[in-house]
Write a structure and sequence with these properties.
One of its GO terms (molecular function) is oxidoreductase activity. The chain has eight helices and eleven strands. It is of the alpha/beta class. The chain folds into two domains: 174 residues, Rossmann fold; 78 residues, 2-Layer Sandwich (Alpha-Beta Plaits). The chain has a five-stranded parallel β-sheet, with helices on both faces. It has a two-stranded parallel sheet with strand order 3-5. The protein has a two-stranded antiparallel ribbon with strand order 8-11. Helix 1 crosses helix 5. It is globular and about 50 Å long. The chain binds flavin mononucleotide and iron/sulfur cluster (2 copies). The site of flavin mononucleotide has 26 residues, from helix 1 and strand 6.
Length: 272
Amino acid sequence: MKTTVYYFTGTGNSLWVSKGLAERLSEKTGMSTDFCRGETELIPIAKVMRNKNPVKCPKGAVGIVCPVYQCGIPLIVSEFIEKADFKLPDYIFIILTYGSHTASAEDIAYDQMKESGRAPDYVNKIKMADNYLPLFTPPSGEKLDSLMKSAEAELEAVAADIAARKKKIPKSGIFADLITKFMYGDLRRKGHAKDKKFHADDSCNGCGTCEKVCPVGNITIENQRPAWHHNCEFCFACLHLCPKKAIQYKNSTKKKPRYKNPEIKISELMRR
Ligand SMILES: Cc1cc2nc3c(=O)[nH]c(=O)nc-3n(C[C@H](O)[C@H](O)[C@H](O)COP(=O)(O)O)c2cc1C
Ligand code: SF4
Ligand code: SF4
């Protein structure tokens, strides 16, 4: 049975999970792994959303893989869930990558899909490096190696569940719901204009990498500096992948190390 994974990623964690799932599901079900043409297909949500045509998800297993943002899911993923037709898939899974706490993010993903007409069969999460730089310092060296190892073990277990078509429906408590209501409410209220707090400092050399890695084309280079156009997904790819560490979020990110998933190449994160 064919598996189709729709993914959204900023710094590569969710792409790493998507690729890992594709490999493992192909092994476990005896199918060949071919990211574009074979039985396990990976499709960037940002690319699907650039296209105005309706989205009809295919038969077989269909998955959504994306990061947790403010205890919810990225706005573009909500918009994708609203836009796509999920009538054909036999089995639907959602895997969230996260860094610290998800509160009720899994419930948000489950409920949004249920409201769009088809409840998912399986919702789970995988802990990875936290790329929310204003609050966290991403791990490196041995700490990152050990986090990647535990993420790999979680990925293995999730792939086995999906191959066995297991069911997993989230149910968070009242406290988690309250946190999500507050945090995710803020993201939904401010929407795509949260980029107003990004700026490039004097170390910017106008190289244009930020423009290329923005998954939604929200950046242009004007007078050798990035300009943000308020269609932001808040993925932090521009900030983390700038080779000069020139992009800052308010004053909270200066001198902090940047993050990219160690097993994903920057070329894989360009205009997906
Ligand atoms: C704007 C923003 C908000 C985030 N909010 C949360 C959060 O509420 N809980 C959490 O555990 N991680 C949070 N994170 C961390 C990411 O979910 C995590 O690092 C994820 O694996 C990044 O995936 P990516 O590399 O595919 O972009 C946030 C990251 C960003 C950029
Ligand atoms: S990637 Fe960094 S250095 Fe290059 S244009 Fe953007 S902000 Fe400037
Ligand atoms: S502007 Fe930066 S944070 Fe916003 S979507 Fe583009 S890369 Fe992500």
